[in-house]
Structure formats: structure tokens, C-alpha cells
Amino acid sequence: MSKKTNFEEVPLEKLRWRCDPKDLKLTTTDDVEPCDWIIGQDRAIKAIKLGLDIESVGYNIFVTGFVGTGRLTTIKHLLERLEKKGKRPDDKCYVNNFKNPDMPRILSLPAGQGKMLKKDMENLILSLKNNIPAVFESENYQERRKELVKESEDGQKAILQEFDDQVKKEGFALVQIKMGPFVKPDVQPLVEGKPTSLSKLEKQVRAGKFPEEQFRTLEAKYSALGKLMEDVFKEGKEIVKEFEKALQALDQEIVLPIIKETVKEIKARYENEKVQEYLQEAEESLINNLDRFRRKKEEQPALPIPGIPLGKGEDEFLEYQVNVIVDNSEIKTAPIIIETTPSYRNLFGTVERASDRLGAWKTDFTKIKAGSLLQANGGYLVLNALDALIEPGVWQGLKRTLRHRRIEIQAFDPFYFLGTSALKPEPIDLDVKVVMIGDNFLYHLLFYRDEDFKKIFKVKADFDSVMPKEDENIHQYACFMKKICDDDKLLPFDKSGVAGVVEFGVRTAGKQKKLSTRFTMIADLVREASYWASNAKSKQVRREHVEKAIEEWIERVSLPEDKIQEMIEDGTIMIDSEGEVLGQINGLSVYSLGEYSFGKPTRITARTSMGRAGVINIEREADLSGRTHNKGVLILAGYLRGKYAQDKPLTMSASLAFEQSYSGVEGDSASSTEVYAILSSLSGLPLRQDIAVTGSINQKGEIQPIGGVNEKIEGFYQVCKAKGITGTQGVIIPHQNVDGLMLKTEVVEAVKEGKFHIYPVKTIDQGIEILAGVKAGERKEDGIFEEGSVNFLVDRQLKAFSERWKEFGRGEILTER
Asked: How many CB atoms lie within 10 A of CB 268?
């Protein structure tokens, strides 16, 4: 059996795309303008513009994409352009509802007039507090008041004098009787010139000291005088009421013109119907509460309670204040609010409460506070989807607000039993465009699990993580680097430095024809490369500084990789990099640490025997296999049946294992590797251990592309380098992944010198020929594979299994190889 040794390798020019500095139309980044536009997101920009331009209900925008693709930057850039066309929204003010104080009223005024109305009402009260007391103290008012008082007093004196005369005429006297802390007027008969109570006379009658007939006469007169006294007092009260009415009429006659004239001046400044109505109610309230302006003497403060500080006294004219909750006097166009902490209070506003010195909770319309939704009314609100979803009450409140396009400000009280507010502020109509930033998982979770979501977020803007590697986009990379250098005051990049950053963008994209749009990573690389250039006392950032920055970044995050490499080198993790072994192969795995990924080889083994179990996935049996890996194993079983079991039953049991793997296996990139191990076990042909393999398969035996190809190749190269380069080592990769190669310079040089090899394959047959060194073999017209080929040996063994299975009946005796 002759060994096959000549196999096609990946061309050197395909191993890494090089950005030639000569092709760049610049000397340094100082030669280009700084980027102030969006790069590589045309699809997302169109979607966002659509959502921003359509004003119908529900056309809010949900932005998806990887972190670092410029989602927030793009939104801010587009909104800043659109806001120049936007109209300045109105001010929003809450005022007292004089008819129902528990339901404060909302006033909507042109921008700037809210603050003006607040000042006008403050000046109104201040003016009245100064002018009305002065009027009350004027000589004219005091004279007229004295006249009314004198008239009232004279009237009361006259009826009292008349009553007193009647009392004396009847032989009685008007006396004051003390009843506890009170004094009560009464009449008593005069006996021997002295007022004597009837009760005392009654005792004298019983004792025979006073005539009974005379007592009865006095008793009758007392009753008549008592009724007369009640009538007198009623008449006196009527005189007092008339006095109060006259005094009130005098107050209004004197003060009413002041109030009306002052309020009229304020009314003339505002055309808003609701403002006019509010001012009219305020005027009526002031007229009906003139007594407040008489209080010139300050009340004595209450004695402090130990441990409780004295609070500020209540404003006596609080109900005439104006609470400007949204002041747009300083803005020129539609507002843009980016809410970084979308709690219920921050988003929807609240009604604050304050405790008085006795611990009682109190609130009023001046404690209503607006949230960012109301601040953004007439404009745009940007917030993070995950932040909004995890905040209690926010998502339900946001849906309700966007559906009905109105907001009701209420305090969010999860512990409402500790203190609630009776205020129910008037709802406010809302015209705001919400832009929510999240990822695809959250978008689809909400889309399928929340019926309201698709009604209120009708526009999805998906940010791509890559863009075409065109000359224009490469130039825009340089412009972006210029912007970062200007913003952070970094050193300029020369041609080679720009080329190094562009190559990093291509590697991050995973395709030689693509550039990464994850500009957060690019910006970090620019900053760190400038740092290392400064350390090297260089005036410009060159390629070596970019490479130094990448190396240092990897050094910071690659501790797990180094630990695994150490275990491979000392034999704790068993990996062979030379020789041949039956049913054993080196697969390639990628370990993802979130910010960093690296590749390492994994030993995969297969053991086959006669049986009916088929392919046994040991990882699955041990609950260490993911769904995708399970699918890959089922596919390779389908491939084996399709290729070798058309003329006989597949009476084979084959166990597959990832040796020394204890944390789980996911992905199907090892499915071709597992097939090679099974074919080796069945054919009796050992596989090369100096070749590592990656690639998934379909049921037709075609090799399919995988992810992380660069990391996998570099991982096996590092193992071979540590164990000793032999010149025959290499990897087998899917041919589709050739376009994604962006290998490190060290690996490229090793391939160039013939020390390392990269073989692209399209089918299982091509791969097994490289690994076994024997021709795979085609099926001839008689249905038998070419003699001596891999497929011939596999098919012969499977036929032997089938015949022996028939011979042993149920197959109780199994032969394992």
C-alpha cells in the first residue's frame, strides 16, 4: 500500500491580507479630516431615518447590534441633525385646581412663558401682600371702618339699653353668672334692692320667709324677660352679621380694584384659554380670602420637640404658586434626552412627599416632578433596553405611555402602605420618539413574548459588525483614527501604523473582504498604540507600535490560554504532535473568554465494534454535549449510513470521546474530525498526529466552514512549536475558510519556510487521504471501492461486521478493535 504525500496547500498570499502602506493616500493621519460621520451602517441609518421621519403612532425604534458598533454615536449624530428642523416644545406647568385641589391642572405654554407665568404669580402675591395691608391701614379705610364699627356698636347698645330699661321696669337686674370658665348673662329679681336668684327665693318660699304668690309673679316675669333676652341677643347677632357683610363689602370695594387690575395685567400677557381660566379662578380665590392679608403679626413658633428639627414654615399663599416641571426656555430646537438610568422616577417623574415635624406625610402640586419622558416631549428619548426592562414598573409604564401617548405622573410606591399620595395630577399629552438600544436576543424575546412590543416599536435598526473592505472604507478608517487622535490628543499614525490598524480590523471581521465596524475596539487599539509609541519616544505611531499594543493586550487577557499551554507542554493534557495512532486525531477547539478567544488542540478518539448501537456520543451520554454538537454527531452517522450501508445493514457500534474534556462541548466544527477517527478505527489505518483538523460536514460528506479558524491554526502551531517543529506539521481546514485567514506573521513565516502546512479540503475523502496517507478510493461500477483504498478497507470491515452479526444471531459476542 503506497503512501500519498503530495497535497494541495493554501497559497502564501491567502494566509494573510496585507495592507500595503503605499496604497494609502496619506503620509500620516494629520493629512485626513477627522471623521464626523457614520461609517459602515447604511442599512441601520436608513431604518433610523424612517422611524424618525414617520410621526404615526408606534414608529419608535429598537436598535440592535454588537456593542462597539457605534449604535449610540449614530443615533446622537442623526438626532443632532434632525433637531435643527424640530420645533421648540411648550413649557409644562402644574397649578392649583381651586375647585378640586387633589387634581392639579396642567398648563401648556410656549417655550419661556412657563417661567414668566411663575414669576408673574410670585410678583402678584408679593404686590398684594404689600399693597392690601397698606390699604387696610389707610386713613380713609380706617375712618369708614370705624363708622361701620360705631354704627354696629350703637345698634347693639341701643337694643341692650332698651332691654335693660325693660328689666329695671319689671324690678329685675341684668347680671353675669359664672359657669365654670364661662360667663352667662341672666336676669334676677331685685329683693330688698339686691339681685336674687329664683332658686334662692324658692327655698325661702318653702321656708315661709317669702310670699309664694309674689314668687309666682316674679317667676312669670323671669320667663317673659328670658324670651325677650333671647330675642335681643338674636337681634344683636343680626347686627354683627350685617356689620361683617358691610365690612366685607367695604374690603372688596377698597381692595377689589387692586386685585382685578393686577390680575388683568397678567391676563393680557397670555392668550392661552386655560391660563385665562386659571387666572380667573385665582382672582376669585384671592377676593374670597382677603383676611390672609390682615395678618401682620407673626405667630409664635411652636416649641421644638427634642430630636426633631424645626422645619421651614408653610407658605401661606402656596396655592398661587406655579410649578414649572418642564422649562424649555433655554433650548432652541426639539430636545434630545439620553437617559442612562431609566428608573421609574427618572423616566416618568414622581410626586414627592415631605414629612412635617410630627412625622406626617404631606404633599401638594408644587412637589410634582417631571421625568425624562416629559423632558423629551416634542423630541427624542434614547435609553438602554436592558436597563429599562430590569427596573421595577418601567416596562409596563412605558408601554402604557407609548400606546396612549399621554403620561400620568404618579409616585412609584412598591411599599405604598408606608405613605401614599392623594394627588392625581391631570394627564399630559405626549409626543415623543423613543429610541431603545438592545441586542437581537432582547428584540426577539420581546417580539415573540410581548404582544404590545410590535405595536409600539415598529422599526428595527440592525447595526452590522462588518463592512466591505473597500478603498473608501479604508480611508474612513484613517479618518476615524484621526478623530480619536484629536479627541484624546494622541500621536499621529504614519502609513504603516494605519495599515496595522486596518489589518486588525480585517482580522476582527473574520473575512479578508471585510472590515470590522466595532469601533470601540479600534479606538482602544489606537489609544494603546499611541501609548507604546510615546514610551518608545517616537513622534509617530508605526506598525510596530500597533503590533506591540496587540501583543500587550493579549498578554493581559491570555492567562487561561497560557495555563492550558503549560498543561499540554508538561503532558498533563495529552496531545501528540508527531507519529501515527489508530482511531486517534487532534481536533481544534476555540475557547472564548468574552473579550478574547484562543484555539487549542483536543484529542478525539474513536473505538468501533460489531453491534447495533450506531455512533455513541460519550459527551452526550455524560451530559457534556451541546445541541449543535449532538446534531453534528447525528449528521456524521447519516453520512456513514449513506456511504457504506447501501448494500448491507450497518451493524457497528462506534464510541466517540473528547479526551480530558470535562466542561462541555458545543458546536459541530469537530464532526469531520470525528468521522476521520471512526474511519481510522474501521480501516485499521493510523492517522497522523502532526496534523490537526477542523471542519463540519453534511450528510453528503462535504466539508462546511467553521468559526475561529485563525485562532485554531495559531493554537496548534504554538503546541507544535513548544514540542518541536518537525517540518511536517499542519492543519486541515475547510476550503471556504481560506478567505477568512489573517494569521499572525510568525505562522505565515513558518508556512513560507515549509515548517508548517495548511491544507484546505472540500470533502471527507480529501481529508482522510492527508491523514492516512492512503488514497480514499472511488466506488467502481461493480459497487466495490478501489482495492487498498481507505473506503475499501472501511467497507470490508463493515461487511465483516454484518456477516458475523448474522452468524451470531443477536450479536451476543462482540469483537472490538
From this structure: 8
Rounded to whole angstroms, how far apart are CA atoms 494 and 500?
A: 10
Angle of CA points 637, 640, 646, to nearest 5°: 125
DSSP string, 575-590: ---SSEETTEEEEEEE
What pLDDT shows up at residue 32? Answer: 93
**Cα separation, 200 vs 221, whole angstroms:** 16
Buried b (16+ CB within 10 A) or exposed e, 271-289: ebeebeebbebbbeebeee
- 327 in the Ramachandran plot: left (φ > 0), alpha (ψ -120 to 50) or beta? beta
Which is nearest to 727 in space by CA: 750, 744, 708, 760? 750
Strand partners for 338: 382
Task: Kindly give, in sequence order, each residue whose CB lies less than 8 Å from that of residue 258, ignoring residues fewer than 6 positions away.
Answer: 128, 131, 132, 135
- With 80 as the cut, is the pLDDT of residue 108 above it? yes
Report residue 576 as a C-alpha cell: 501528540
CB 188 within 8 A of CB 195: yes
Contact 815, 804 (CB under 8 A): yes
Average pLDDT, the chain: 88
pLDDT digits (tens, 9 = 90+) for 481-513: 999 999 999 999 999 999 999 999 999 999 999
Helix (H) or strand (E) holding 566: helix 559-569
Could you say which DSSP state residue 779 is in? B
- The helix/strand/coil state of 318 is helix
Cell of 647: 448494500
Indicate whether 298 pLDDT > 70: no
This model's pTM is above 0.70: yes
pLDDT at 549 over 60: yes
Task: Scan for cell 428595527, then name that residue.
Answer: 460
The DSSP symbol for 592 reads E
Between residues 464 and 357, which one has the greater pLDDT?
A: 464
Per-residue exposure over 59-95, b if at least 16 CB sit within 10 Å of its own CB, e if not: bbbbbbbbebbbbeebbbbbbeebbeebebbbbbbbb
Q: In degrees, to the nearest 5, what angle opens at C-alpha 212 toward C-alphas 211 and 218?
A: 95
Q: For residue 548, how far is the Cα from the chain centroid?
A: 37
Q: Are 676 and 771 in contact (CB under 8 A)?
A: yes
Q: Exposed (0-12), middle (13-18) or buried (19+): which is 535, by Cβ within 10 Å?
A: exposed
Strands across the sheet containing 730-734: 614-617, 652-658, 597-610, 584-592, 691-693, 730-734, 757-761
**Among residues 770, 50, 21, which one has the least CA distance to residue 461?**
50
- pLDDT at residue 748 in the model: 96
The pLDDT of residue 1 is above 70: no
Cβ pair 478, 29 in contact under 8 A: yes
Residue 815: strand, helix, or coil:
coil
Look up residue 300 and give its DSSP letter: P
For the chain, give the longest Cα–Cα distance: 162
What span, in angstroms and rounded, lies between the C-alpha atoms of 790 and 774?
6
Beta bridge partners of 350: 369
Dihedral in degrees, nearest 10, Cα atoms 19, 22, 24, 30: 120
* Distance in angstroms (rounded) separating the CA atoms of residues 173 and 545: 118
d(C-alpha 481, C-alpha 278), whole Å: 58
3 state DSSP class of 516: strand
Read off the pLDDT of residues 371-388 as tens digits, 9 standing for 90 and up.
999 999 988 999 999 999
Query: At residue 600, what are phi and psi to the nearest 5 degrees?
Result: -150, 150
- Give the strand order in the sheet containing 91-95: 105-109, 91-95, 322-326
Q: What distance in Å separates the CA atoms of residue 678 and residue 669, rounded to the nearest whole number?
A: 16
Write the DSSP string, 253-270: HHHHHHHHHHHHHHHTT-
State the Cα–Cα distance between residues 202 and 196, nearest whole angstrom. 10
| SS3 track for 407-419 | ECCCCCCCCHHHC
Give me the amino acid identity at 11: P
